[in-house]
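We modelled the chain as a single entity of 664 amino acids. Its sequence is:
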Amino acid sequence: MLQPTTDRPMGCFAVLRIKVRFHAWLLDESLSTKPLLRCVLCPMRRCAFPRLGCALSTQFRCFSLLCLVAFLGKAGRGLLKAVVFSCVLTGPINNICLNAGEVVRLFTCSAVLIYNLNLARVDLMTKPFQVALNISKDHFIREEFEVLTNITEPIKLEVEGVVDGRMKRETAADYRESYKRKLDARCRAQLDHVLKRCKEALKEVYDECHRVLPILVRSMLCWPLKIDNICSTEQLFGKRQNVCSPERVVYSRFGEDYMNLKRSERSFVEDLMQVQITFEIFDKEHHEGYLWVILVICLLFGMLTFSLSRQAQETSRVVVLQFEQEKEKIDLTVFVLEKMFAFVFIRVIVRAMVYHQNYLKKIDFQNHYIGKHFLRIDSRRKQAGKVGVLPLRYLESPHYVDLHLVECSRTELKSILSYSISLIFMIIAVTFFLLVDNVFYKTLNIVAKNAQVEFEQQGYHDVNITVIGSGLIAKMLRLSLEGFETQARLNTTSSIDQCLPNPSKLSSWIIVKIYLLFLAIVILTCYEAIINRLRRFICARFYPKREKQRVLYLYNQLLRRRKGYFKLLLDRMLQTLRRRKYSARLDFLNRLVFYYPTCFLWIKLLHRKSCSICEVKKPKRFHDCISYKCFLTYCDECWHDLGETCPICAEDSNLAHENCAPDH
């Protein structure tokens, strides 16, 4: 009956070769249709063992055809769905991520541009302060306060006679006595000089008088000039001791004050030698608080700027870094999903293998097809005077498929509709992603075309400081403020062209490919019933004895069920009663038709009846039970099977069972 299974290693070898080819495709290429066909067809074309297996093994030939049919069945549709998902991941979703990267670049570039524009204005305002601090040195204060140290040099020279006299005197009395002697000596020298000049002047006058006047007169008139007492200091100023006495000039605390002056000067000079000025100019591109300084200055000058909490370039770098990290996660997720979708290919082979094994091992596996052999068995029974099973009852027809009918059975149609609903939701979801990507692209494209802006900044900042005077304070101010004299100019033109987004447009071929795949899935879904029948036909052609066993088993099973068909009708009717909750009363519309048939006959045209057992609503004649107990409705088929008697209205259930027994 069954073919031997010694040829199974050849089939396994072919499957193994297909799997190896599949893994190569999985690792090297993305999920697409061309590599998929290559990984399936190339092993079959190049491998000699599968061809030899097809020539020698019935099982392998059957399994090979089932694999081809499986690509057209539910597993094949699942593979096409995986290809669609892969196209969506690598198409619109990846394109949305790329355009999102352009949005991030637009944000960061605009932030840096605005920051640089504001920074240029602030630099123009703060230029004098920057120049003044940049030209400062460690000896800045020392150079200015050296003027103070030069003041004490004439005093030391006057008191001590030398510039550096730190070791010449030790006590205040010594300084005072020394200075008194110096003043006394200076006074005496001055008096001697005055006396000498007086004598020289008198001698010059005497010589001139003696030269000019006649001899008789000059002796009488010029002799007073030869008197020495005229130039005597005592005659002119008084006693020399009183005139040159320094007691009235040098006060008693002169020595102490002079020592305090030298001590202060020494301390000041020694401390000044160790003076170091430390200052810091904030790095505007790396200092976190500099933007707050910019904010305060701009508010003081009536300008508008952005109060950022961190530096603009650092903020942009952090935003780009975070986006790249999230983009890497998305790329990793897409990569993993693509490889997971690729394993759907294995499902096609597994489904074909499972169907093949179940067909040979399980006699009731998908055994619901009524073909020619089934008709011949039923015809022989009827010719022999036995009860047949054809035609099928309405309650039985959903569970069986008549191969002579082209239309789908209710079970097949239900499966197609349920799969179509899920496919519609999938198409809507994919279309949504495509629309989002298209709207995103068009928005960025509009921004790129219409957001071209140029920024032009012009300004100047001249600072001229003039300090009038030659004193100590004037010199100090002049040294301090000379760095603030600047002439700064600002004339820049900036454009936002480099910050404009460069959106990526999704390829039209990807969209066409996605909807072509959907069209292929829809076509395969519509022909699902034919494809399922084709699988049975392939197995029936390769295993005719097994198919006869399956048909015989199906016929006997249908006979056994037909014997309990009456009980099935009663159970269905009771279930209908419980579900509809029938009582002695009709519903409102049926009551109108029942009591006023002439007036409300048109309700029958709108309110279509259904059989209480099989719930059929076909336009055929119904049998209504007009008893006050049920008011049930039966179709012709169910009414005939019930023996044209309502079992609910029957008084004796046993009698009703005898009267309603089916004909065999």
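As a brief sanity check on the tokenised model: The longest strand covers residues 454-463. The CA atoms of residues 320 and 444 lie 18 Å apart.
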